[in-house]
Amino acid sequence: MAVEDLPIILYHYVHSPYARRVVWYLNLRKIPYTQCLQPPILPRPDVAQLGVAYRRIPLLAIGRDVYLDTRLILQKLEQLYPASAAHPSLVAAASDPVGRALHTGLLSAWTNDAGGLFWNGVFCMPADLPGTDDPRFLADRAEMMGLPRDGPSPISKEARAARRPEALCEIAEAMHLLESTLLSGGEDDKKWLLATETPTLVDIEAVFVFVWLAGMRALPQDTMGPAAFPRLHAWVARFMQAVGAAEKENGEPATVGGDEAAKLVFGAAFAEEEGAVDGGNPVVVAEGLQKGDQVRVWPTDSGSGHKESGTLVSMTLREIVLEAQGRGAVFGCTRRGTGSR
């Protein structure tokens, strides 16, 4: 069966900034998908039906393969859906080393990794942002960070207020960097970061934090608004117009419940051929791992209390694939723990 004939199911909640990256990508590439909407806090029984303990959003199922973080999701979509007239590419033909480096992860690391743009954005969230002072939300996020659910929250209204000035400085520095480099092109400022005619994956990776902050009205307009950073704010507005037009053209995705989503996943074929365990991988060597071993893996930056158990199917320098115990699906996650989603 061709990959294009397999169901694509996105498990997410609407306001997740990480999930938006995947939604934008799918719409800009005109790849149809079905969504299974989830609550913003645990429990998520729909995800548990897949045999997955991973607690972060989004997850993407392509057939019977389930991918657990957005870096891997975007990478797999690039691999499995090559550019065509039906699915236009979001990767510019970058012949220079800088362009290739930006496409292969530099901007993604800058925005996603611990201490990066997203984490600073958390402390810019307005004090009155609905839901963020709900005790259930604070306890859920404390558990995700590996802290006691009943202890002081690191992202409470008071904690955010204390760290907001420093976080705003970090965001402003990032805005200045983009304004004065990738968005600056002489007399005719660049429309997109790689001077392309349409947005690319590089734009998605760099813009998502700024879209999130703009939606929350989290930035002081006098010092960080359009007058201070005109190119950056114009770029954000252009991007939202582009994805809005794509979403309108593609139409609303079908929405299914957890039972139907699980039925679609377990009734489908696999999207990828089974890989191997790389015998040259330093972790494989150190742990003496072999294909078929029973293993547990977990993120090392957040959500580490939710450990995946299963049969090791393949492992490379960039990816670990397990077969969920007692289920007919496999799930893949990035080898990197820090900052991966």
From TrEMBL:
Record-linked InterPro entries: DUF7962 (IPR058268), Glutathione-S-Trfase_C_sf (IPR036282), Glutathione_S-Trfase_N (IPR004045), Thioredoxin-like_sf (IPR036249)
Where on the tree of life does the source sit, at the highest rank? Eukaryota
Question: Signal sequence: where?
Answer: none
Q: Which Pfam families match?
A: DUF7962, GST_N_3
The organism encoding this protein is: Apiospora saccharicola
Q: Where is the GST N-terminal domain?
A: 10-83
The name under which this protein is listed is Glutathione s-transferase-related protein-like protein
Looking at the record, the residues that make up the DUF7962 domain are 124-248
